Amino acid sequence: MLEVSHLTVGYGSKPVLKDVSFRLADGEILAVIGPNGAGKSTLVRALSGILPPQCGSIRYNGRDLCSLSVQERARMIAVVPQARNLPAGFTAWQVVSLGRTPYLNWFGQLSPADEELVREAMRRTDTAHLAERLVGELSGGEMQRLLLARALVQATPVMLLDEPTTHLDLQYQIGLLNRVVEVVRQPISGNGNGKPHSPAALVVLHDLNLVARYADRVLLMVDGCVRSCGTVSDVLRPAMLSEAFGVPLEVMRSPNGKYPLVVPLMA
């Protein structure tokens, strides 16, 4: 269980996150939504250790993540950023292998167990066939799957995905989120010790209909504060969403009746 309690974070003296509290369980997908400037990416930076808290705590199973070294934190939390600045001269295999960095020996060499974890992660993210390809030759969707594989091979109990579907077409958006669900639902061996783990995933998303389809729970942020946190049906409500995003929205059932469908109301 990842537990965030009364977290306040800012740049300088100006708070951006204000008294944020929520929990995230292993094997769960929590979608973070909100208008631009709500603090979603700042939350990811705070959870990953880039921004120190001004107040509050971030704990995993009672362990204070802010007190950990960089290496220890890298064994607890993996980040999947937007695929923008990957080294073009690296092969796909090299990019994914970087996820094992927190576990390498003094010589920086991958062990046979490390290599097996890389192969398994690339297989599960449908990137095995890209192993020898240079990153500069890959599409945005392929690079985003590589970053997911890198996070998976890091074998952490928590994964943070910051707008992973941005700049991807619908096919790649659905494909990537399907992979995230598979990663969370199907345990993978981790840390070279053979123990399977099902990571918790916090995913920042803009498309509310993708949120309705893939999230277990939803965290709605407005102006740096948690406006609501709960199940999809609890949070994706017309009045709450319309107020948060500043436009009239309607929520209905999808044609198959399984998921909420968020649509703007025409003027």
Summarize this entry quickly.
This protein has 267 residues and is of the alpha/beta class. It has a single domain (2-91, 153-264), classed as 3-Layer(aba) Sandwich (Rossmann fold), CATH 3.40.50. The protein is 31% helix and 29% strand.
Structure description:
It is a single chain. Helix 4 crosses helix 5 (about 140-155) and helix 5 packs parallel to helix 6. The strands form four sheets. This protein has a six-stranded mixed sheet, sandwiched between helices. Strands 2-1-4-5 form a four-stranded antiparallel sheet, covered by helices on one side. Strands 8-9 form a two-stranded antiparallel sheet. It is α/β, with parallel strands linked by helices. It has one domain (about 1-90, about 155-265): 3-Layer(aba) Sandwich (Rossmann fold), CATH 3.40.50. Strand 1 and strand 2 form a beta hairpin. The chain has helices spanning about 40-50, 70-75, 90-95, 110-125, 140-155, 170-185, 210-215, 230-235, 240-245, and strands spanning about 1-10, 15-25, 30-35, 55-60, 65, 75-80, 160, 190, 195, 200-205, 215-220, 225-230, 250-255, 260-265. The chain contains nine helices and 14 strands.
